[in-house]
UniProtKB/TrEMBL annotation, chains A, B:
Gene3D superfamilies: Winged helix-like DNA-binding domain superfamily/Winged helix DNA-binding domain (1.10.10.10)
Source lineage: Bacteria, Bacillati, Actinomycetota, Actinomycetes, Micromonosporales
Entry protein name: Transcriptional regulator
Native species: Micromonospora sediminimaris
InterPro entries in the record: ArsR-like_HTH, HTH_ArsR_DNA-bd_dom, WH-like_DNA-bd_sf, WH_DNA-bd_sf
Domain HTH arsR-type, residue spans: 8-103
Domain of life: Bacteria
GO MF annotations in UniProt: DNA-binding transcription factor activity
Length: 119, 119
DNA sequence: TCGACATGTTATAAAGCTATAACATGTCGA
DNA sequence: TCGACATGTTATAGCTTTATAACATGTCGA
């Protein structure tokens, strides 16, 4: 596996990158939101995004599937799309959580500074 | 504010989108990591990414700055880049945390199912 | 002050992404 | 079985991002 510039990267990094890239599109985040509480067929999703072409929805679903965020299974002539939140949890645990708690720490420091200054 | 397709979106959505898009590049995530523990000058960052052109680094820094993830201040002829983790915390709180805890809930359910099955 | 240094600006080629069109396949039920 | 339906595939135009080049500006110190 190698990046555009040719250096080697680990499979985990590739997965992580795919998830971040999948989340980078607001349309795809909306699709995930639509799948959050229940699985839906592709046709159902298309109805919920009337401004998008059916092909566009499918293309986005393919990106989400490649990132492991959506799992699809065929039932007869329908395709049921299920959300899998695990990849999001992974990047949360390995990446985002650190920054979020750094921000909390920063705010805590700021708060105690302010309190010290205005007794 | 309007998207590529012309529908209206709120300024918060735009900010959120900018943050997600900024995080979508592995190079930019590495830049953030380099700034995690200390602020650095642009020149310092360029030395740490020797495979990238100086202009490329600056362009990435501009994207990070537009997303509010990096705050820059000039000191003489140097530019010091500081990390601001707050925008990451925001998308964490408003978006990612939900999915991460959904994943935890899913795992918990699975675990208790397994335990019930193998007493 | 003047040259080396750090950074900023503008332009551009190449690669990638988004949305759509046109056509193909597979499945259900009258 | 056969037509309507749901989905799949391939191709493509237009826009965006990435990486670089060439040139410009501002600042420090000998």
């Amino acid at each position: 596996m190698s990046s555009r510039r040719g250096e080697r990267v680990s499979p985990e990094q590739v997965d992580e990158d795919r998830v971040f890239k999948a989340l980078a599109s607001s349309t795809r985040r909306q699709l995930l939101d639509a799948l959050k509480n229940q699985a839906r067929t592709t046709g159902d999703l298309c109805e919920r995004f009337p401004h998008l072409d059916r092909c566009t929805v499918m293309q986005h679903l393919r990106v989400l599937e490649a990132a492991g965020l959506v799992i699809a299974q065929r039932k007869g002539r329908e395709r049921w799309n299920h959300l899998d939140p695990l990849p999001i949890k992974h990047i949360h645990d390995r990446w985002i959580g650190d920054y979020a708690s750094a921000a909390v720490g920063m705010l805590a420091t700021l708060k105690s500074d302010l309190e010290r200054r205005t007794p």
